[in-house]
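From the pipeline queue, job 12 of 40. The input is one protein chain; the requested action is below.

Action: predict structure.
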Amino acid sequence: MASRSLFPDDEGGSFGSKRKPVEGDLDITPMIDVTFLLLIFFMVSSTMQGKPDLDMPVAEHAIGVDALGAGVITIFAPMSIAESPRIVLGDVQGEDGELADIPGYVEEKVKSGIRKFVLKAEGDVPHGIVEEAAKAIKSVNGTELYMGVGDRPQN
């Protein structure tokens, strides 16, 4: 008696025979297109932070000063020991400067009628730099110096 296959000849033959794998090329072009579209989507939809956050010392006792009517000088802590602190002539955003540029900036503001100056410095800025910046501000006659501090934490 001859054995019969459960499958017709065009659907796989007998149980003992193996199918040959179908060779084919994988087209990854659509995958690359989708990847680039996702990249562009996230680049366009992400938001950039306008002002970097300052790590300011916390105030124990303070009276607020209107920063809109005052000149502001911001000092950022150095990223490493080899670097010097970054001084910005403005409220976080503004022109980068050096300690020697502060009196000229203050004189320009005084000529425009601004006499109050807020000195903001991150907590990791060396005290000597803050002191030198404060002296540079006070070297111009008729100025009032205020130190920028963070809000007191709520209990």
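Job complete. The mean pLDDT is 78.
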